[in-house]
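Issue 218. Parser rejects a valid record. Input:
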Amino acid sequence: MENLDEMLVSSWFNVHSSVPPSYVQPPESRPGKVISTSSKTIPVIDLGGHDRSDTTKHIFKASEEYGFFQVINHGVSKELMDETLNIYKEFHAMPPKEKVNECSKDPNGRCKLYTSSENYQRDTVHYWKDTLIHPCPPSGENMHYWPQKPTKYREIVEKYTRELRKLGLKFLELICEGLGLTPGYFCGGLSENPAVLVHHYPPCPDPSLTLGLAKHRDPTIITILLQEEHVQGLQVLKDGEWIGVEPIPNAFVVNIGLLLQIISNGRFVGAEHRVVTNSSTARTTVAYFIYPSLESIIEPAQDLVNGSTPPVYKSMTYGEFRKNFFNKGPKIEEELQS
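Output the parser choked on:
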């Protein structure tokens, strides 16, 4: 079996003039060469406005109709966003063995580097990306397992994830207002286990044959994504059509996770999305995943169900949900139905 440092897409992408067979998607999953002429875009919401109820309405509408929106004037400095992207680009540019070594310190395997997906050995088709993942809980525990290289990694990422936690809780508070839940509904267990996932997609010799990420819904409460300017790749499925999520300077992309779809009893949509590659430019994205604790109960909020609006989904712990999600993939939707 190959060593991980040899398996990373960033280790070998430039020596291939064609896509290796295991990275070629089945015909029905390929992005192909068709470019949508759709003028649709996901909503853009300005968080800097003074009318809180208006902002809440926009977030609520976008969460119902798209499950995705972009936010501007969110309070996180451009300098910190740039520093964070740059430190991750530096990380992925390091020698392969060094990257693997920096992500091999956690005995529990929660801070790790992998390629394609966490199920690489089981997957029959692979994806054109490398991923760094680690928890970033507000308590600061596990930080000693984070990479120490590049220099300042821990300092910048700690600052960034602290700011993203504040921003995430702000979104969740606005979502509570829209749904009619108590303001602190998501405080505590439902948001206490965040993680950062950094995807790196090297240039691909034939983007029409492969994908960076397959069509999926995130197993999160919400996801906040920082993407590079001028490099497209993220696409959202809306009414049977793929919509490209155009990078906006200094904006975050926010998407509703499957867990929030359950908690909202189906009011919000955990939208399906995927990532396509390109042939000329590497793309790096930073996703902040808001996860619950494994013991947290995931179920439709009690205030949203009654005799005329029964629960659409079963109740289960997040640990059970996570196990089902990774074992069943897209088929988990059937398991969740009440």
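Fixed in the parser; the record now loads. The chain has a mean pLDDT of 92.
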